[in-house]
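Let's practice the habit of predicting before peeking. Look at the sequence and jot down your guess about where helices and strands might fall. Then scroll down.
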Amino acid sequence: MITDARALRHAFVPRDLYHREGQIDHLSSQLTPSTLDRGDHVFIFGPSGAGKTTVAKYTLGQLEAEHLGVRWAYVNGMSDNTAAAVMHKAVRDMGLGADLRREGTPTSVAVDRLRECDDRIIIVLDEVSVMDERPLYVLYEIPGVSLICITTDEDEWLADLDEKVYSRLSAAPIVRLEKYSHAELVDILDARVTHGLVSSRVDDTAVEFIADIAAGNARKAIAMLRRAAAYVENNEMRDLTPAVVDEIADEAQREVKERKIRALGTHQRLLFRIVRRAGEIDAGTLHARYEDQMDSPKARPTRRRYLRSLKQYELIDDEGNGRGKSYRSLV
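Done guessing? Here is the structure:
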């Protein structure tokens, strides 16, 4: 059944990216060497599963293939959100910091590596709304560094930005993505089937069913296809049918959420665990338990930003406002 497992991974960047040609062209136009000389930055906004990260990686892969002297890095703010973590991940991704230890290396050392590099540098900051603002300050001040900032909620992130950061980044061009339509998701899944499975053993109606359940979210759709293919193979079945999809759908959705949990940083994970253990908890109790369990707790505004990200990840939900606010686990 499975001929190439790589094609069934969400992080896999396909050779051809369907239904995002306009966004790729727009992003590419901002990343040409002549544009990068101006040190421009770019925002990518869109809902979860709309292909924001894939569009960025795909476009940068093309840029790297077409031009000499380009280095790029990918940093996910859910797991790396402090200045030290962002800088360390960036220089290691670009092959500039293999000798640097994650713990104990001053941020200034990584900054110096970026300053000393003669290549054009592009850093993707995914889930940027979760990051502390200091990495944005630091990276903005390094000549020759361009940022691609990715997040789901455009208005909320920009409204929360410090005025100085906002004034420096607000003029950046924007690439917007919408949810995939049903037909577009079917095309994406068909391409994954062609590259990763024995196509003749995949019922067309199963692909249609996956697209229905995923409701425009490519991440969920690909997870269901992967889980369904594994189910068929593990149970020595002949075909991947709608019945198989129905059998694995809930488990695949849990897998997506568990993957998100594993990507959380230390503080987000603790906040999530407190909510998960309680089932439902009021804001005051949540903050008190967090402060009691964390040696160096983040400030409340930062915690609220983390909690919003957990909601966007569909790991928790909230209700009420101010002191009457409460949180409940969705996992």
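How did you do? The chain has a mean pLDDT of 92.
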